[in-house]
């Protein structure tokens, strides 16, 4: 590559045209990374410097690590773990509808969860498999959310000094972090209340129906339960739609259905789950 | 006949990168058939005459195709009119006596150079990392030599309409550049000519983007702000292509029918 210094004037050392050998140390860290990931870049021209925002990632990492530490990759993890959690929440809500069939049916359903696929699989193995899966999904979902939030906060260190006028962003999409935190705290209480039992003075292990009634007979618990499930519904309304986008499920043939599916999932979960404390409070169940 | 509007402007003034800025208040009388940039020109003329420093802002073609201009107007990128850049926004969108707040794009990837002008070199870095096809350029090929389905051609053209103004980043609550990157990637990925380098392009453009910008949370603000009305459908396509770029066996790509 020949360059005529006399016509182009003086230039700095780092402005040199560089043949892509991958070993020139004269380029800033950003362009170094650029050469590694970029397509064939024979020549780099001098130009305005882009700011350094995120530290260049170390080179030569295994591809799953590259994927899982990229923001788009983390959105995939959010979407896939979110899908698993939506599946769980739907199944959980549907199963709990048995409470309307009475104590015997509900307790039998609760007990049957311990013997799923028995005798093919030893007792409680499937239950524990699902529990481990849920813990992994929760961990991946929350971990990615925290990492992405950090990236996003770093991406706009100075906020707009005048009020923003949002057009498309809705309450659900703007409040994902808060509804997520509410749901996470609720899940912890929910486990303490109805699985481990230490948050429920009348807890008797294995007595699912009585535990549920005893829990919701406390009005603050019933109210917290309803509020948390409304937060969950709001979270799922944006989360379900967002999942389709993050996973690239997008086609003019069904794009209009995605909002409807998100609305249906959110409404179904909220209505079914809110009905339980209401049923206990008003004596339908108990 | 045009009406003359009397407006109060609160414009962000900042001497340079890293210095502290503040809103300054100006008043201007402007006919309502002037464009927003002509209105800023008028303010600058008044400032000149008063011996003060004019407001620095980016502009070039003033017909919405170059992507140079762009400011936040009352909290909206390119102002209240949909599908136009700042230069195509006319003062008839505002009413007499209104106060308008004008602010530069704000993102770590777009540092302020001065007043309303920001450095968008990060966009160049993203395009350099894969926003092209590597072919020998010679005489133009015959038309219709490579068949392209109509839907694909239309969609690629929609993506290629991106002028790189940065409104998507500015409008995004997370300062994400996913719409820009997706448009620059998908207008090639959707065409037969872009297939040979599709997976390398998808991988390197996403990873270069993430050196500078935030992540997408699917609010959809970017497509509302985009002067070319590029849809977030392209972001979904990019997300899928990024995953596939990690999974495909590139040694076998030649086996695929391209086009």
Describe this structure in words.
The complex is a heterodimer of chains A (286) and B (259). Chain A has 11 helices and no strands. Chain A has 2 domains: 1-60, no CATH class; 63-281, 3 helical TM bundles of succinate and fumarate reductases (Up-down Bundle). Chain A is mainly alpha-helical. In chain A, helix 3 packs across helix 4, helix 4 crosses helix 6 and helix 4 packs across helix 11 (255-281). Chain B has 259 residues and is α+β, with helices and mostly antiparallel strands. Chain B has helices spanning 36-49, 121-128, 150-160, 167-171, 178-189, 198-209, 221-225, 233-247, and strands at 4-13, 22-31, 72-73, 76-77, 99-103, 112-114, 117-118. In chain B, helix 3 runs antiparallel to helix 5 (178-189), helix 5 crosses helix 8 (233-247) and helix 6 (198-209) crosses helix 8 (233-247). The radius of gyration of chain B is 21 Å and the shape is elongated.
Secondary structure: elements and pairs:
The complex is a heterodimer of chains A (286) and B (259).
Chain A: H1 5-8, H2 29-37, H3 63-69, H4 71-96, H5 103-112, H6 125-155, H7 171-174, H8 176-194, H9 208-216, H10 219-246, H11 255-281
Helix pairs in contact in A: 3-4, 4-6, 4-10, 4-11, 8-10, 10-11
Chain B: E1 4-13, E2 22-31, H1 36-49, E3 72-73, E4 76-77, E5 99-103, E6 112-114, E7 117-118, H2 121-128, H3 150-160, H4 167-171, H5 178-189, H6 198-209, H7 221-225, H8 233-247
Parallel strand pairs in B: 1-5
Antiparallel strand pairs in B: 1-2, 3-4, 3-5, 6-7
Tag the structure with descriptive keywords:
heterodimer, A: 286 residues, mainly alpha, 3 helical TM bundles of succinate and fumarate reductases, 2 domains, 61% helix, B: 259 residues, alpha+beta, Ubiquitin-like (UB roll), Fumarate Reductase Iron-sulfur Protein, Chain B, domain 2, five-stranded mixed beta sheet, two-stranded antiparallel sheet, 8 helices, elongated
């Amino acid at each position: 590559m020949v360059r005529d210094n006399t016509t182009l004037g003086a230039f700095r050392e780092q402005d040199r045209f560089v043949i892509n050998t991958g070993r020139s140390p004269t380029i800033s860290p950003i362009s170094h990374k650029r050469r590694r990931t970029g397509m064939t870049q024979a020549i780099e021209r001098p130009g305005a410097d882009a700011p350094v925002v995120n530290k260049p990632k170390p080179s030569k990492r295994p591809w799953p690590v590259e994927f899982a530490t990229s923001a788009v990759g983390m959105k995939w993890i959010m979407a896939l773990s979110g899908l698993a959690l939506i599946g769980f929440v739907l199944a959980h809500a549907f199963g709990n509808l048995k409470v309307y069939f009475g104590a015997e049916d509900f307790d039998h359903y609760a007990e049957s969860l311990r013997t799923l696929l028995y005798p093919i699989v030893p007792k409680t193995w499937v239950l524990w498999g699902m529990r481990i899966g849920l813990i992994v999904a929760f961990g991946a979902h929350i971990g990615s959310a925290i990492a992405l939030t950090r990236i996003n906060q770093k991406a706009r260190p100075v906020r707009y000094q005048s009020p923003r006028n949002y057009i498309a962003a809705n309450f659900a999409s703007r409040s994902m972090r808060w509804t997520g935190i509410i749901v996470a705290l609720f899940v912890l209480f929910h486990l303490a209340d109805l699985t481990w039992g230490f948050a429920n003075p009348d807890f008797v292990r294995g007595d699912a129906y009585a535990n549920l009634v005893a829990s919701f007979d406390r009005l603050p618990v019933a109210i917290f339960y309803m509020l948390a499930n409304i937060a969950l519904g709001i979270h799922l309304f944006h989360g379900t739609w967002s999942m389709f986008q993050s996973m690239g499920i997008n086609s003019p043939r069904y794009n209009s259905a995605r909002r409807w599916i998100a609305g249906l999932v959110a409404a179904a979960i909220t209505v079914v789950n809110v009905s339980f404390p209401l049923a206990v409070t008003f004596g339908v169940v108990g | 006949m045009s009406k003359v509007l009397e407006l109060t402007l609160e414009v962000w003034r900042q001497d340079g990168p890293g210095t502290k800025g503040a809103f300054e208040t100006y008043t201007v009388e402007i006919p309502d058939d002037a464009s927003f940039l002509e209105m800023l020109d008028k303010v600058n003329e008044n400032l000149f005459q008063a011996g003060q420093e004019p407001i620095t802002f980016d502009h070039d073609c003033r017909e919405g195709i170059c992507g140079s201009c762009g400011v936040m107007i009352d909290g909206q990128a390119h102002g209240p009119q949909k599908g136009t850049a700042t230069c195509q926004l006319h003062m008839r969108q505002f009413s007499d006596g209104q106060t308008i707040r004008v602010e530069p794009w704000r993102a770590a990837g777009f540092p302020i150079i001065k007043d309303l002008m920001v450095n968008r070199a990060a966009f160049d870095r993203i395009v350099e990392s894969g926003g092209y096809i590597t072919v020998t350029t010679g005489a133009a090929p015959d038309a219709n030599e490579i068949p392209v389905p109509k839907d694909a051609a239309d969609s690629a053209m929609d993506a290629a309409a991106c002028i790189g103004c940065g409104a998507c980043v500015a409008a995004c609550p997370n300062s994400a550049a996913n719409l820009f990157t997706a448009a620059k990637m998908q207008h090639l990925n959707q065409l037969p000519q872009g297939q040979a380098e599709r997976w390398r392009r998808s991988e390197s453009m996403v990873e270069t983007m993430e050196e500078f910008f935030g992540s997408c949370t699917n609010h959809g603000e970017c497509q509302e702000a985009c002067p070319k009305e590029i849809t977030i459908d392209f972001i979904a396509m990019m997300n899928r292509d990024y995953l596939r770029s990690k999974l495909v066996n590139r040694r076998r790509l030649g086996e695929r029918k391209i086009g």
